[in-house]
């Protein structure tokens, strides 16, 4: 069997997975924007601000116990064996229950600290609704822990079509339920219970609608050790990186009022459209493909990396330039005047998309089982976030805080350069590919503004 005969099926699977991933993303984006436009007209900004804090607290707790189970199934040679998958699922279930118990304790701690006047008056953390919302909203981690490992198997084999259909169907049902609750209730609980409903439906669907090895509780000591060996670097990296991943909202929640936090949440949500597009492609296409090549075809690995990196540079550069110019326009079209300040926030945050360009290299860390680079990246991001965000806010207000959030995205570039040098992934002809992409984005953004102003 020739190398071409092996690579050709992989290329076809990459193309198919890429098309389905982008199709799913486009459909998902449409539903999310429609949902957001409807709900922002039914609920006040404070509802989105509080849900943003609850979401970030839940994510923080989840990252504190992250073992990279999904990535392990994709990378590991035993990723299709029943004993390995059942052990992985058991760990996943126990982890979900553990995280929820931490969330319950966090809710109690927040109540105690608020009663003792630790938090600044008027901030999200003194709102009496926060503890109950945190307990109910964080239950989704239990439901996510119960999801079938068939999801990871499908991603490992680049079989994305069924996953796409499930994701879109769940989103439609969740939108209908959340809008109905918001219409009837007009409360933050509409957003919370809508999320729980969405996670419940998705968990059931992963067991019933995907092909693959069915799950049952089981334990194999060797499988557990292999899961832990791979996941320990992710575990330590997640502990260090939790404030970076969630620090913007956690720290801002203690610096600004709930209304400003809600406006920031809208800007971050809009930026996440592009971030999600890139991470979806990276996670569902680039990572499984790079993992497969890393197991036996190092030359093919390098070529695939360069192609994926060029695609990421083009997408992120173009989006950064365009959104920097058109941030206020996007917000004015999608939202009513109460959310106008989110536009300026969005323009500043857009610069951080350039800092994301080495997200492809970070997939190589995992594909090559060199997770210490991931840990080093998060250490640098954490330092920048924790030090510069409060300082930026103290000296330059909200604009200074937003600038610090952007700078944190660039902090891990030196680690990526070291990894690329070690694995001979540098290609100086392509390192500056993001610059013309940014320039084109700025040009197109200005042209769009000129057209809008002309009419």
UniProtKB/TrEMBL annotation:
Belongs to the polysaccharide synthase family. This is Oligosaccharide flippase family protein. Signal peptide: none annotated. It comes from the Bacteria. InterPro entries: Poly_Biosynth_Transport. Keywords: Cell membrane, Membrane, Transmembrane, Transmembrane helix. One of its GO terms (cellular component) is plasma membrane. It is a multi-pass membrane protein. It holds the Pfam family Polysacc_synt_3. It is found in: Cell membrane. The keyword Cell membrane applies. The chain crosses the membrane at residues 47-69, 97-118, 130-146, 166-185, 191-210, 230-251, 263-290, 310-331, 343-361, 373-395, 401-421, 433-452.
């Amino acid at each position: 069997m020739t190398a071409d005969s092996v690579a050709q099926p992989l290329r076809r699977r990459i193309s198919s997975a890429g098309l389905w991933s982008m199709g799913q993303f486009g459909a998902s984006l449409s539903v999310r924007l429609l949902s957001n436009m409807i709900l922002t007209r039914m609920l006040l900004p404070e509802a989105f601000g509080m849900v943003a804090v609850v979401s970030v607290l839940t994510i923080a707790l989840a990252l504190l116990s992250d073992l990279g189970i999904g990535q392990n199934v994709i990378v590991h040679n035993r990723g299709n064996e029943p004993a390995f998958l059942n052990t992985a699922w058991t760990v996943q279930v126990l982890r979900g229950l553990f995280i929820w118990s931490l969330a319950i304790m966090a809710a109690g701690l927040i109540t105690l600290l608020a009663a003792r006047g630790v938090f600044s008056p008027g901030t999200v953390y003194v709102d009496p609704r926060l503890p109950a919302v945190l307990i109910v909203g964080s239950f989704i981690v239990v439901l996510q822990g119960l999801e079938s490992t068939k999801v990871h198997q499908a991603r490992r084999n680049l079989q994305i079509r069924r996953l796409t259909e499930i994701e879109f169907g769940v989103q439609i049902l969740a939108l209908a339920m959340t809008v109905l609750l918001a219409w009837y209730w007009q409360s933050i609980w509409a957003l919370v219970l809508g999320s729980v409903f969405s996670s419940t439906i998705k968990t059931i669907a992963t067991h019933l609608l995907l092909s693959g090895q069915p799950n049952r509780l089981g334990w194999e000591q060797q499988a557990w050790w292999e899961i832990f060996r791979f996941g320990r670097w992710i575990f330590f990296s997640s502990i260090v990186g939790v404030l970076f991943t969630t620090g913007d909202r956690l720290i801002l929640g203690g610096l600004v009022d709930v209304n400003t936090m809600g406006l920031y949440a809208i800007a971050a949500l809009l930026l996440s459209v592009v971030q999600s597009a890139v991470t979806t492609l990276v996670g569902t296409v680039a990572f499984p493909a790079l993992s497969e090549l890393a197991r036996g075809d190092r030359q093919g690995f390098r070529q695939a990396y360069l192609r994926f990196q060029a695609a990421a540079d083009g997408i992120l550069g173009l989006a950064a330039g365009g959104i920097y110019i058109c941030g206020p326009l996007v917000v004015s079209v999608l939202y009513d005047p109460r959310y106008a300040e989110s536009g300026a926030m969005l323009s500043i945050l857009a610069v951080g998309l350039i800092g994301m360009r080495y997200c492809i290299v970070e997939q190589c860390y995992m594909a090559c089982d060199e997770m210490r680079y991931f840990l080093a990246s998060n250490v640098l991001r954490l330092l920048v976030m924790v030090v510069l965000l409060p300082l930026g806010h103290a000296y330059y207000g909200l604009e200074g805080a937003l600038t610090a959030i952007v700078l944190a995205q660039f902090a891990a570039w030196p680690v990526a350069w070291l990894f690329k040098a070690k694995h001979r992934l540098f290609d100086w002809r392509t390192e500056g590919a993001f610059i013309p992409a940014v320039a084109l984005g700025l040009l197109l953004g200005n042209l769009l503004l000129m057209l809008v102003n002309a009419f």
